[in-house]
Each structure stands twice: as structure tokens, then as C-alpha cells.
Write a structure and sequence with these properties.
mainly beta, Immunoglobulin-like, 4-stranded antiparallel sheet, 16 strands, globular
């Protein structure tokens, strides 16, 4: 596992623009007074205010996700921002009774048994709690539509390099299969509609109190596995904290998923408990890594 270096601002902006273009479920940014409706034909209507303007956005034509393939693009919504005929829209949403969602703004059950949801979170915060420039850190509004399972994001903690650094590892799967893409930039921004980044926030770290963005990185091809070390990449680091929140955009048009795991104390080589835990976690990492060659360092 290589060290994660501080990205210059230009690289961070590139990551923002490229990833945004491939995330078909993004409706808008910094939306207020958000409402969701779904009609009998399977069209969603998202109503919200942004910059003092009321928006009525229709979305349709996609559900769930495809497993990774180079033969077909991932499913994505068709969207209409014109606001035409929104007054004739007849909402038939029923009360939501689906799985609990992170960052939920609105959700409902459609008449065909599928679910629709809106989630809002700050995907593009700068790495290592850096300054928020160039539009980074906006509250993105994401729309999802699904009838089957949602993605599963798993994460575990241990130490790495003989206990010198705190470490995260895990995997992103959908319907029991790995989530991954086929192409990305040199800074880890997906260049196809299948790739997904894992966004890591750290709580009560050297960056300060509360949640702060640590970094973002790709789920690996073809395993969906990831691993990350908290190294002193900046003068303020390392950014290990009391707990970690990992978040990923769902594959296709499925909901975004998030998991929070507790952090660890600094490793004590004289502690039999720490030594046993590290051996246990190393074995777990090896078991999920499979053919992955990037997550072999302990």
C-alpha cells in the first residue's frame, strides 16, 4: 500500500469535475426546501430552491445498477430541468418503508414497489481538511431509485508498518459482487460510470473537533477492496481520529452508503491484546483482499 500524498488544488479541482460528470444521480448543489414526488409512470419530480430560484426537475429511465462490465455503460437517469408541465404532475408516493439511509432528505415507495430517495452530503470537501476553494465542499443533492438490494460498505481498523500508523481497510460490494471501475485519472478520479471513490471523514483528530475530511480513494479493480494508512502527509497530520465515517456513491442509481467505525489507540507492541488484535485484523485483510495486490502491507 503506497503513501497517500497531498494533492495540489488543481488536482483536487480535477477530481471534483471528473467525478461529478460521472455521477448521474447528482441533481444540484446547496438545494433548500427539497421535496420528492413520483407519479404512476415512474417519473420522479424533485422540487427545491437554489440561489433564490425554485426548480422542478424530472428524472426517469433508470433503476438499480449493473455489475461492472466494459460492454455497456452503467445505468443513469434521464433528467429534465426545464420545469415544463410540473403543475400537472400527480404524486403517488407512499410512505417509505425501505432500508435506513445515510444523509436522507426525502424518500418514498412507488406504486410498483420500488423506492426513490434523496440524500445530501458534502462529497467534495478538500483532502486533509484543506481550505474550501473553487466550489469544494458544496452540499450535493443525490437522487436514487432501486427495487433490489443497496450497496454494502464494510470497513475495519488496525495498524500498519509494525504499528507505526493507524490503518483502515474494507470493501464495497453490490448484490454480493465487488464494485469497481475500469479507468481512472492519476489522482484516483473515475473515468467511467462504474468506478467509485470511498470518502473518509475523521472525528476529533489533529485537524480539530468534529468531522473533518481526511481523503478519498478508489475501490480497487476487480475486488472492490480498499486500504488506507493515516500517514503524516501534511504538517497537521496524521489525521487518525476517535472514529471514521466512510461514504460512497451507490453503484448505478442506487442510494449512497456510509458506515462509521471506531478509531484505535496508538499501538503498543508490549500489549498482548494489541498484538493479538493486529494478527487477527491482518488475517481478515488477507481474506477479503483475494487477488488484490495493493492491500498486502501489514
Amino acid at each position: 500500500m503506497g503513501r497517500h500524498l497531498l494533492l495540489p488544488l488543481t488536482a483536487a479541482v480535477l477530481l471534483l469535475s471528473t467525478a461529478t460528470a460521472n455521477a448521474s444521480e447528482i441533481i444540484d448543489r446547496n438545494a433548500q426546501s427539497v421535496r420528492l414526488g413520483v407519479d404512476a409512470s415512474g417519473h420522479a419530480l424533485v422540487t427545491y430552491t437554489v440561489g433564490g430560484r425554485v426548480m422542478h426537475v424530472r428524472a426517469w429511465g433508470a433503476v438499480d445498477a449493473r455489475q461492472p462490465t466494459t460492454g455497456r455503460p452503467q445505468v443513469r437517469f434521464r433528467k429534465d430541468y426545464s420545469g415544463r408541465d410540473w403543475t400537472s404532475f400527480r404524486n403517488q408516493c407512499r410512505a417509505y418503508d425501505g432500508p435506513k439511509l445515510a444523509f436522507q432528505v426525502a424518500a418514498c415507495a412507488s406504486s410498483d414497489g420500488s423506492y426513490w430517495a434523496l440524500q445530501s452530503w458534502r462529497r467534495t470537501l478538500p483532502n486533509f481538511d484543506g481550505p474550501r476553494r473553487g466550489g469544494l465542499g458544496a452540499w450535493e443533492l443525490h437522487l436514487s431509485h432501486w427495487s433490489g438490494p443497496i450497496a454494502t460498505l464494510e470497513a475495519w481498523t488496525d495498524w500498519v508498518y509494525g504499528g507505526r500508523y493507524h490503518h483502515l481497510f474494507g470493501r464495497l460490494t453490490y448484490d454480493g459482487q465487488p464494485v469497481y471501475g475500469f479507468s481512472a485519472t492519476h489522482v484516483g478520479s473515475p473515468l467511467d460510470s462504474y468506478g467509485r471513490n470511498i470518502y473518509v471523514d475523521t472525528f476529533d483528530s489533529r485537524y480539530g473537533k468534529g468531522w473533518r475530511r481526511e481523503n478519498a480513494f478508489l475501490a480497487h479493480r476487480p475486488t472492490g477492496v480498499f486500504c488506507y494508512g493515516f500517514y503524516p502527509s501534511t504538517s497537521r497530520g496524521p489525521g487518525n481520529g476517535a472514529k471514521y465515517r466512510l461514504t460512497a456513491i451507490g453503484p448505478g442509481v442506487t442510494p449512497d452508503v456510509s458506515v462509521t467505525v471506531p478509531g484505535l489507540h496508538d499501538y503498543d507492541p508490549k500489549s498482548s491484546g494489541d498484538v493479538a488484535y493486529e494478527h487477527q485484523q491482518n488475517a481478515l485483510q488477507d481474506s477479503i483482499a483475494g487477488v488484490d495486490k495493493k492491500c498486502r502491507v501489514h
